[in-house]
Structures
1.
Amino acid sequence: MKQILILGGGKSSTFLINYLVAQAVEKQREIILADLDSRVAEKKLRNRPNTRAEALDISNAERRRDLIEESDLVISMLPARLHPLIAEDCVALGKHFFSASYESKEIRALRSQIEEKGLFFLNECGLDPGIDHMSAMKIIDEAKTKGEEILSFKSYAGGLLSPECEDNPWKYKFTWNPRNVVLAGQGMSRYIEQSRLKYIPYHQLFKRIKPIHFKGLGEYEGYPNRDSLGYRKTYGLENIPTMLRGTLRRTGFCKAWDILVQLGLTDDSIELNPPQGSSKRDFLNSFLPFDTDRSVEEKLTDFFPEMDFPTFEKIQWIGLFSHDPLPIYQGSPAQILQAILEKEWALEETDRDMIVMQHQFEIRKGDKNQKLLSSLVVKGENASLTAMAKTVGLPLAIAVDLFLEGKIKLKGLHMPIKPEIYLPILEKLEEFGIRFEEELLED
């Protein structure tokens, strides 16, 4: 009996676990779910056949390696910083490894050992990264097969709210890791436009947005991710004149978020210790000029003369003008802001999240240029069964199943950018309503 070890039982693992457990008896597999609290794992598994829950403190090396050694394959749903630790164990113990996270330099350093031992390591097989790679590569490989030239590739994705659940001025709530949202874009973003390299420093990022339209949903805005250039080689587009990968938000979000960035509320480099009893208003005021004759609201609008009412309303809505006490009194500005937003942007149980993704291609076919839009919209069921968990977990679960069935025969370190990986995964995802709609426009 094949044993699959899943490390980490967070919200993102729900669909992955359900998919693999549904096949466990028929395909003679045992699913082992290891979490810090075994009760959390037991709740996920629900006493279904061929499953077992285990308690695991990931820092307990002996216990961790014992669980890995008795398994045939390991799926890491742990925080990304822990993947290299698990990957090293898998190499040492001769076990295959799967994750939805970015392929780190630490894991890349294991490439030769992975190949020598004939192991299969698959990373970046979730949503973004994951479904974005697979859906893009399908179009890219088809164009190359037809002898067509790809002139431009822009890709945007976002985890947002389904329109009927947009009940606040930001039209946004946390559907994924809040810290990643608060720190998004820090550093330097870079991409290429018509063969010219472009760089955007963090303090300019949320001003450099592009409008993106989805049929039936309306208007969104996209801003560049940190690094679009590295994916030219990944996608086999080393000489492409234009390439950009970006993040989607509802129109108006970035203008308001930029206010928080310019004030310094997203800074994570220093620790603040506001006095006990300090309010959210005090927190905001500490980043504004000293002036006892003007209110916090007046100072903010004086400081940002470009601020309009929709932007002001967003700042007001997250409570930064209120006298309510801060949720925490120690941490970086970003950590304090995150604690404020975690309350204000929390999903209600009946909320439905939504994944939106759009690839924008310009393709030369003979003497004509064509624009191809490939768009994905996936809506969640509620705050527990989210579109985010579905689109992160299912591609990974399907990849594991295909590998154990012998339908993926590759060895070594991989991302899902080869047809033998992405074609069967995309085909299976369509059965779950994860399907791209394509629109071809003549230039």
2.
Amino acid sequence: MSAGLPEGALAVLPRGARDLLPGAARRRRALTEALLAGFDRWGYDPVVTPAIEYFAVFGRWLAERERQRCVRFIEAGSGELVTLRSDITPQIARLAEQQLRERLAAGEAVRLCYAADVVRLSEGTREQAERHQVGVELLGDDAPEADAELILLADEALRAAGVTAATIEVADVGIARGVFERLPSCDVEALHGLLARKDAGGVARFAAGLALGEAPRRWLGLLCELFGAPGILGHVPADIRARWPWLAERLARLEATLAVVEARAPELHARLVVDLGEVRGFDYYTGLRLRAWAPGSARPLVVGGRYAGGAGFAVELDALEASLDADAVTTATRAGGVMIAIQSREPRARALAAGRAGVERAAGRRAWVQVGLSLETAQAAAAEADALVYFGADERAEIWSQRQPGAWRRAEESGA
């Protein structure tokens, strides 16, 4: 064991990491492929970003708290500070600046999608350090219709993955931040926490300790109350809209976005939750904030929003899988295929099994070989297969099939 590793470290994983066994790995691949296929139908082209970046790419986008969560190291040879990918959006922004500038300058909206892992130092014992995401980025279109497209696409993606009735939260982070900018110096992080908990009493006490005018004091209270169905936007007092033109503009954009969603997907519109007090998430968000929730996961299944130059969201695969597990939804069954098993370990027997596997593969079927197994052991090992071809001591082929796991039925017997 390496010096410095705790006792038994080779038997465990670092905090925030986990393995996926074959069944779970196949399901993840199926979910990833389903999501990417859905994004492709909407015109999102795939890109792959590197697992490592110069830290400066993330330093331009992330707040200090998130910078500290980057896994950093010095690049051999150059001495430059390098980091493992902790977020996709800064990489997409770098890619756009380097390679998509002409398309964007010509007025083209660029749609990109990806499947990638991100690594962030975990802040707690239960938080995952490695996250697996499939997402989209829409660059060069800052209209309300573009925000609506992301909301519609997020819902379609979740339905394609098997989540049929997710709760989708939408917000404009510029609303709460605009209020904060007009407050006297105070503990904004504490206010964030109160709003996140919808602690109206706590917010009132917080406001009482500040020298505020009537409008800011009223609006701080309303940030806790204006949470619910899209119709909640109609509850914003007209006098506050009139007094704060910047707020009226933000609200009008959000209303325009929701109107597009309602026109195209009334059922989805009825499931939306609007939260005007939402301030959580990366500091680079400038407008729309999008999250989706479903039973079974303590974390959102979708996270995203609008930032300078574009907008996007990521489907969090770990949270998605937790929700599917809680709902007893199976999105991937047995791997299928044909296992070729032979009792003997002799070279001639191995060649016989390999030849049969080659025939199966040539016919387009998945096939693999196991040697030195009894029939009973071979059937247990072939739990993922649809069929088993077993060569016993006489090297005659017995063909078995299973429609349900463990329910083997002999189909035929033929000479080798």
3.
Amino acid sequence: MTAFPELIAFQRDTEALSQVMGRLGWDQETVMPRGAAGQRADEMGALESVLHARRTDPRIGEWLAKSEAADAEGARMLALIARSFSRSQCVPARLAAELARTTSLAQGTWAEARARGDVQHFLPTLRQVVMLKREQGQALCEGTDAATAYDALLEDYEPETRAEDIAAIFDRMRPRLVALRNAVLGSGKIPDPLRGEFAQDSQLRLARKMAEAFGYDFTRGRLDLAVHPFSSGSGADVRITTRVVETDPFNCLYSTIHEVGHACYEQGIAPQYALTPLGQGVSMGVHESQSRIYENQLGRSAPFTAWIFAQMQQEFGDFGVDSPEAFHGIVNRVQPGFIRTEADEVHYNLHVMMRFDIERQLIDGSLDVGDLEEAWNARFLQDFGVAVDKPAHGLLQDVHWSVGLFGYFPTYTLGNVYAGCLMQALRKAVPDLDAQLARGDLAPATGWLRENVQQHGGLMAPREVITRACGAAPTEGPLLDYLDAKFGAIYGL
């Protein structure tokens, strides 16, 4: 008799508890009172101890040995449970709990340091996080086939991928991105930025309209404000956040569309996979492919920005832009900037490449946390030709390292690469896509993505999902060709 039903029932409770922990994280970022940070850290540590004990429960090994899968779905579930069990056993319970507690505290410390513009307030806490992540990476490295501690950490976000593979992709991308940037900036055709004041309530109304247009189901989600926008949850409870800058409505609108891409992936997974190993996105690279194709290839396209232009006029009246064509140019304005999340498509991947190099140095110990700000500022000046003017525009802009997400950053560019391939396939599958986008009708595009990517959840390995959807293995070529064509047309290159 197979032990498969017992194993899956046990796993279901573990997945449910993991969702509860994720909900605590959402609460911390949105509505938790500031004075609760210390208690929340203890709560997160306690819950992580429970989860770690479940993930390393000896019965899992016994059940795995006695389990037989009836189909491909069952086989994949067993493979994912076995992988999680093996990796969890490598990490001591003490370390798992301390990581959860420390990163919960660090998140609040980062937010305080960012608001105060005080890097020194954050560095001691970041040093603790880095030391714990090095220890975790080394423990995983010793217990798996990962070549380095960083590779072991990367595996949590993009399974079956190594840093050397990512570095090779980035090395191939960088020359074309730099050449395109130089051509655009040298064209003499950079439009002025959008100017004016755009009330928060109006921005949020428009953001909600954008979310609904892209198919986000508000009966299974909600939209809130956060310092750093994110998506949280899966299945029947998938929440998104955005942020508002009253002089820059694009910040709110495109942060929302981006997070809706993540959320629609989770909402689009086949319902029968809920609270199983298949019930979440298979990797952060595939996740980013959804958020980036929603935000950029669809959301910043000429036909869809024409539709947004009309919505902006309805909400704000005459806001100083006289045509859909001019609006499209402003939405896609190329300009060196400090903030990764606000970067145009030409510069965005250069931001990611910088962080990828720096975080590898932090984990392998070749860069000390005490020297991090200087290293960041020097690399930024080298790559972007602009000196960082304040910490919130530099080292303190991203939340990732404070919460221990080392290995996460490169998945942003992997997501862009995957999105480039998916968009190429989507255009072949939906020949009249532009006409639909011009009407604000995203259903054919998002429906294709749901059918070919989202519904599968964790059923296939990351590259297999993209390969099956596109009919060919993913490469950086389609993304770079898309960028050259799009910005070449906008800037007359």
4.
Amino acid sequence: MTTRKTPRSPLAGTPSLLRAINDRAALELLLANGPLSRTQIGSLTGLSKPTASQLLARLEAVGLVVPVGTTAGGPGPNAQLYQVNPAAGYVAGVAVTSTTVRVAVADVTGTTLAEHRVPTKGWPAAETVHRVAEAVAETVRRAQLAPDCLREVVVGIGGAPDPATGKLRYASHLPGWHSPRLVEELELALGAPVSIENDVNLAAVAEQAGGAAAGCEDFVLLWAEEGIGAAIVIAGRLHRGFTGGAGEVGYMPLPDAPVSLGSRRKVSGGFQDLVGEPAVLALARRHGLPGADGAQAVAGALETDGGGPFLTELAERLALGLAVIASVVDPELVVLSGRTPTAGGERLRELVQEALGRMSIPRPEVRLSAVPGSPVLTGALQRALASTRDVLFSTH
């Protein structure tokens, strides 16, 4: 004998869940559109005026919104305006290189309150965590905030945490950052949750949030400075790979740049040997161009009548690596970032676009980075803000 199961009706949202959804929608609108009145929030969300009033009262009571003046100039009485409370939470971003640590602190609205830069020359490896904590504490002090105010710290670094061991991979150039308990040690020193992310991935986060890749869900960011790296975004999400090493294209084998594995498993060759900073400087010297670093050599070539052949060869080298990446990923867009391509400006971008069109069947559009300042630091703040808002704005 079989028994017939009665179909279950779908569960309706509970009143508290629906309130939480409305709260989150209102907070996102306030972040995107600035101060809004009760009527404006009701109009944008479809909520009635009484419901919008209750929502604002609820959010004000828990410190997520604050009144900030009134409307003026309308036919009726002035209406109270509200905005997200900047003091609801604070975050920090940290960008680490082999020579500096840069820190920025922002409030939950995304306003940067203070930045601080510390040279790392002479840092003992054993004191790295302590020195980073000092740099963050100094930035918080400059922002005139309480020492324990941070809700999230995101560190951008030239490597990738191994998801299995927690150790930092691809970062032999950064002594002091290889403890398997690195995250726990940083959290203890900073007094806040910490996450570590590949620096080029964070540059891609910044471009997607408000830079050259805004509104694009499938793109590749190529970073070229002293070293070479890439970030891959598929369907709007970063692709990290099984070990966190997706985008580590510096040692990608290419024609005229094979990879060799020497003694002690030291790797050389690949894309790095074509467009890494030492290769760019060597290419510039071959064309009779000066420059203390890759960016200076490229910028100087733009101002020199004889710089054209150098820029053309550099563009073809960049396009060669991009053609390999594009043939696998087929992105809608390629973003050129880092000091070297940024110094080349629109002229180098056009040369890369033209060369890529000759080498690759997929022909994605090539754009220059549109994030001012440090894309890595900006991306670290964006990632920290997203995490903090998820917690703060979840009122259910």
